[in-house]
Hints:
Elements: H1 10-20, E1 25-30, H2 37-46, H3 54-57, H4 60-64, H5 66-69, E2 75-82, E3 98-101, H6 110-129, E4 134-137, H7 145-152, E5 156-157, E6 163-164, E7 172-179, H8 198-202, H9 220-226, H10 233-239, E8 242-244, H11 248-251, E9 276-277, H12 278-282, H13 286-292, H14 303-315, H15 323-326, H16 335-348, H17 351-361, H18 368-378
Parallel strand pairs: 3-8
Antiparallel strand pairs: 1-2, 2-7, 3-9, 4-7, 5-6
Helix pairs in contact: 1-6, 14-16, 16-18
Amino acid sequence: MLRRSRLLSLEEALRAQAAALGFDLCRIAPASAPPQAGERLAAWLASGAHGDMEWMAATPERRAAPQGLWSEARSIVLLGANYGADGDPLADLARRDHGAISLYARRRDYHEVIKGRLKQLAAFLLSRAGAGDAKVFVDTAPVMEKPLAQAAGLGWQGKHTNLVSRRFGSWLFLGSIFTDLTLAPDAPERDHCGSCRKCLDICPTNAFPAPYRLDARRCVAYLTIEHRGPIPRELRAAIGNRVFGCDDCLAVCPWNKFARAARDARLALRPELDAMPLAGLAALDDAGFRALFAATPVKRLGHARFLRNVAIAIGNSGEARLSAALRPLLDHASPVTRGAAVWALARLLPREELASLARAYAPREPDALVCTEWAKETQSEKK
C-alpha cells in the first residue's frame, strides 16, 4: 500500500519552488526593521561615505524600515543565487596589460534574471496561499537587502559589509519578496568573522576605516562603477588594471573554501569577458562597447566612463607600447575620458614626448578639469 506523502507547509512549498526556479537559498524574515540598521545608515550617510550615490540618501526612512517602504508588509522572503566560479577571481590582476572585470559582471545582468524568477515565485506563493499580495525587489528599491538577509539567516554581513554565506562564501546575488502574508520566520545568522581581517587588509585603497564600515568614496568598485567624474588622482595608481568593479575583499574571505561554481546556465560566465587586452578595449567605439557588453552590468556604465577606467588601467600597466592606444582618447568627446588619458600618458611617455602632446592639445582644451590634468603633468618633473 502506498503511503500518502506528507503535505508541505506553505513555507516548505515555497522553498521547494525556489529551488526549482534556480535559487540556492530561500529564507524568511519578519518585515520589522533589522536591529540598528536605521541608526547605522543615518551615521553612514551623515559622514558622506556614500559619495555620488544620492539615491542612497533619498528617503532613508523607507530604506531603514521595510514597512516604511510598504506598510502592509508582514514577511520578507530573501533569496540567494550562487554566482561562484572555478579558479582564482584575482588571477587577472597579474596580467597588467589586460582589463580585470568583477566576477559578477562577466555574465548576463543578474537583475533581469533574478527579477523574473522572483515574480514567478511570488505568483506561486500567492496562488498557494489563496490570498495576499506581494512585491519583488532586486537592488532596484530602497531595500537594505544585506541586513535583511542576515535576519533571515542567509548569511551575515562581514567586516567588508558584504554578505557571507557558510555554504557559498561571498558569491551570492540577493533578491527579496515583500508580502502581506504572515510566514514563519527563520532564525537569523550570527557573525562568524572572528578575528579575521583579511578582507580589510587586502583593500588596495584602504576603503575600510574600521571593521564593518565602508567609505565608498575610496572603494574601487564605487570609483569604477558609480562615480561619475574623474577618479581622484591619489587613488588612480591603486586601481591597477581593474576596469569594472573589484573582487579583492570578496575573494580573500576564508569562507570561500566552501563555495562552488554556479551551475545556472542563465548566469553562466562569458569567456570573452575574461581578462581582455587593454589596447582592444581602448579602441572600442560606442557601438562596439554596446555590442561587447550587451545584456551585462558593464553596459550600464556607459562608454565614456568605461574608457576612463581603461585609460587609468593602461597608465598603471607600465607598458609604454600601450601609449599608442591612449592618444586617440585625447580627442574623445567626454572630458572625463580625455583627462584620464592625459594622466595615463604621463605615466608611460618620456617627458619630452608628453610636453609635445601638451603643446598640441592643452591650448585648445575647453574643459577646465582636463586643463588642470595637463598642467599638473607638465609643470613639474614626472614622478
